[in-house]
Amino acid sequence: YISDSFTEEFYIMCSGAISKEYLDETSNTKDGDGSVENQKTLTTNSSKESYEMAKQLIFEHPELSELGRGCTNQQIKAIENKLGVTFKGSYLTFLKEFGGGLFGENLFFSLEDEELIEINRELHHPTDYENGLAENLIAVYYDDLEDYYACLDLDTEVNGEPSVVYRNTNVPEEDYDPNERLKSFAEFLHYIIQDTIHVESRIDS
């Protein structure tokens, strides 16, 4: 017995390293080889590559995918207006290309039935528990097994890419380590898709 899940163990092992890399990229440095501008370019390339790798894996495993066909700009704008946010970066690309849905047992909230709106309204203004989700966080994914939400942190945007944090219901924001985060939705998506394929391949074998 090593852990409740591979996801939990992997996150514990990697969160420290990811957090340090994220903080290094967002720290202010002088111009030169380590400039902020150069770091932003590296971050953008990394996010794009992570998203494209995740996208390729999705297409290679249609038996696991119940993702949609994407949303129009008008649909996305309507959701943004209702939530009072502006989606950017790899998550915006994901909405345009897939919209949401299931990959394996992983639930990415959909725009079509306003699932994204209703869930975030409930998390921000809970009726069944005391502590709600911080206003700068937008939940985009739910893990039923581990009972956590993956949220875009709109206050930590780097070059158009909000970081991603994990949150549980009814836990005060101050109880979380602010440094435990993934750099982008693309990085989160790539990990989830890889993990799902890995778990499913072990089950099949």
Describe the structure.
- Strand 4 (about 135-145) and strand 5 form a beta hairpin.
- About 25% of the residues are buried.
- The model is unreliable at about 10-45 (pLDDT under 50).
- The protein has a six-stranded antiparallel sheet.
- It has helices spanning about 5-25, 35-60, 75-85, 90-95, 115-125, 185-205, and strands at about 65, 100-105, 105-110, 135-145, 150-160, 160-165.
- The longest helix is centred in the first third of the chain and has 25 residues, at about 35-60.
- Helix 2 (about 35-60) runs parallel beside helix 6.
- It has a single domain, classed as SMI1/KNR4-like (3-Layer(aba) Sandwich), CATH 3.40.1580.10.
- It contains six helices and six strands.
- It starts with 5 loop residues before the first helix and ends with a helix.
- It is of the alpha+beta class and about 200 residues long.
- It is globular.
Q: Would you tell me the structural class of the helices and strands?
A: alpha+beta
- Counting DSSP H or I runs of 4 or more residues, the number of helices is 6
The CATH topology annotation reads as SMI1/KNR4-like
Order of helices and strands: HHEHHEEHEEEH
Strand order of the largest sheet: 1-2-3-4-5-6
